Amino acid sequence: MLITLLIAFLSLIILMIIHEFGHFIIAKKFGVRVEEFGIGYPPRIFGKRFGETIYSVNLIPLGAFVKIYGEESDVDDYRSFSGLAIWKRILIVLGGVIAFWVAAIIIFSVLFGIGAKVPVGDNDVPGAGDIQVQVMVVQVGSPAEVAGIQAGDFITSVKSAAAGVAVKKIADFQNFVQENKGSSVNITVDRQGTEFNFNVVPRVLHEQDQGAVGVSLERLATIIKQYPFYEAPVRGTMFTWEVTVKSLEGIFGFFANIFAGKGVPAGAELAGPIGITIFLANAASYGLGFFLYFIGSISVLVAIFNLFPIPALDGGKLVFLIIEKIMKKPVPVRWEQTITAVFFFILIAMSLFVTVRFDIPRLVDFVKASI
């Protein structure tokens, strides 16, 4: 499990490198001088100059950066960012976001080239068959762990002395467990093609985030079948669009609930970089297809997030450029830097809050499960 955590972490770093490469390649295309392209954040471990650009590896492994001449100051030079026409600067800013979507298309194209099971909701009716409910996480000390249920098991049925149900949806299992709290139930699972039966007594009292049995479930279906190599990119592009639309609907619903005073929507989970890494590590544990689906979806979500009109994000930079276009003059450099710094610290504070409140407990559970 710790290996998958490392793989997940490196995958996110690669996404960040791709994002910065999007800015880098368009800046180069427009003849802007790129002073440095760095993997990780300073202090620098080592760097090598090729042409006019330093390519560096830095100590803090939390992403990547590109230093573009004239981006943070008003430089009267045709080879500076500030010396370009606004439409070219907009394309450079959008380059990072576009790179996320290009990465998603490539990832989903590979996914359609190999075929895979992917998560689906209980209300989704996939065109293909082979719908299964898989145990993703078993809580430490829970009835499920005591009984011997393991992450990766597929739950096929659950029964009591009086009745039983075939499990085709997560709700099938959850509802049956709720009706039989405190009583012994028999859970049948498929573990790598072999059937096992476990007697479990669902808890009457339990932590809200653990459930009566202590398992986290995912409904999987083979809705992405394998396609010929020449058709996979078309499918991957179409699927990227579908994921983008669904992500936008989910984000709109999230904020609509918040502004309506309804709180965080049911099923929504807040996660920072550590939490996302853990989710991705869990996905990597259950097959290449699931991993590709998850990281492709993350790439789309991060692309959308970067377009938010918040200073310190690409969307915020676009806002300043639009203001410049409307006002016929750039926003004073000091104003832009001050506003960006304020929002940067706000984002860092929010990230730290989510990390401490949600991600560290997830990390502790992940480590415990790995020991």
UniProtKB/TrEMBL annotation:
Its cofactor is Zn(2+). It comes from the Bacteria. It holds the Pfam family Peptidase_M50. It is a multi-pass membrane protein. Belongs to the peptidase M50B family. GO terms for cellular component: membrane. GO terms for biological process: proteolysis. It is found in: Membrane. This is PDZ domain-containing protein. Residues 8-349 form the Peptidase M50 domain. Gene3D superfamilies: 2.30.42.10.
